[in-house]
Amino acid sequence: MTPCAAAVARDVRSGRASAESVLRAVLRKARARKDLGAFVRLLEDQALAQARAVDAKRGRGETLGRLAGVPVAVKDNMLVRGVETTAGSRLLQGHVASYDAAAVERLLAEDAVIIGHTNMDEFAMGSSTENSAFGPARNPWAPARVPGGSSGGSAAAVAAGLCPLALGSDTGGSIRQPAAFCGVVGLKPSYGRVSRRGLIAFASSLDQIGPLARTVEDAALALSVIAGADPGDSTCSAMPVPDYLQDLGTGVKGLRVGLPREYLAAGLDPEVEAAVRAAVEALRVLGAEVREVSLPHTRYAVSSYYILAPAEASSNLARFDGVRYGRRSPAARSLAELYELSRGEGFGPEVKRRVMLGTYVLSAGYYDAYYAKAQRARTLIKADFAAAFQGVDVLAAPVAPTAAFALGEKSADPVAMYLSDVYTIPSSMAGNASLSVPCGLTKGGLPIGLQLIADSFCEGTLLRAAAALEAAVPFPGLPEADRA
């Protein structure tokens, strides 16, 4: 079994293992499980150079960083200097990044080793990692099922033991939903907690980078590294970064846990509901106080999100015009044809659908009817969370209505696909911290995740509750026979 990230770092710092030996073992596993489609590119030569540099640093007696020798995979929408970075799209094939994303910089500064880019839905638009120019990723628990999306490659890689830690991005659930489907921990930080510099944008008021890991400790460790102020991102908060590892073992006695009644309603699979309620009961037994709360404007979240996020995507993706970077159609005979053909050839169907929807809701005559109204609904959703957090410390809810669904099951029905994020979108709209922690298996042996939501910049509370549940209700993880 691939050791967890914290254990790898301890072993490399102490000299019990070399960064190079750890890396070579991980690369062997990644090459052996190409069938999962978890990676779009492995950076073997670059990673070996980084690992050897870590070992040389230890050999000189220098202090190693918090992620010493830890192999980390990053989603294909995060820039890695000198490496093709494509956001899962044909449009950006051949695009080589000229600088590292801020999150990648911080990983490298703590002596992590970047092993590759993971598969994703094109431009992070999807909930299954089926909308990728590189083909779908598969769920290690059941390869005929999706790993979730859009960070499905990162979740699959961690679950299958192809790396101990990965980064994903979450706009409306794209870390938490694949984490739930693949049985790993996935954390979406508060909006502004982690710099978005070097993240290829989908919806700038929603996007956040966060970790996927096998343990809550690893997620806390990764967040401690990537969080914090960045002058290169004006939306990144300057609030100090606490020690997220400090309170992991303090338990939940006296913690107030809210159970939103709107999240446990029609449409939720009975097995998922039973696992979520059992996890909440486990927290109560550990000393937490559980009470029901209401988030009355939850019913507007999905419809508002699919106005606001496509509108921002329409604006953000306008830069891919065939002129400056990305695909440039050789068939174009005029500037208008260059725009039309380059974008038509480069974008996939789901991206085209959302760009057209976003352009429509921003157009003259429709802005007030759709976009402005959706912004007002977002304000009400945010107010619901603020009111709830006056009486509770953390909310507990499902991550998704079902466990992982079959590949192709929802591809022809965009609305059904969008509804797989019905429980994750509200906290994204509010900018709150939230995570998925495994809480059980279906009768068919598929993972189920519990979503915990805390107020903005209260990641410590979130991680404390998740760690208590993890200790009280151990999750078996993917059977060793199914790992690489």
Can you summarize the main beta sheet? Answer: 11 strands, mixed
Query: What global shape is seen?
Result: globular
Would you identify the CATH H-level superfamily of the domain at 5-253? Amidase signature (AS) domain
Q: Mean of residue pLDDT?
A: 96
Structural class per helix/strand content?
A: alpha/beta
CATH top level of the domain at 5-253 is Alpha Beta
> Order of strands across the widest beta sheet?
1-3-2-4-6-5-10-11-9-7-8
Give the topology string: H per helix, E per strand: HHEHEHEHEHEEHEHEHHHHEHHEEH
Q: Over the alpha carbons, how many angstroms does the gyration radius reach?
A: 21 Å
Q: Report the CATH topology name of the domain at 5-253.
A: Amidase signature (AS) enzymes
CATH architecture of the domain at 5-253: Alpha-Beta Complex
Please provide the count of β strands. Answer: 11
The level of helicity is 25-40%
What is the percentage of strand-forming residues? 5-15%
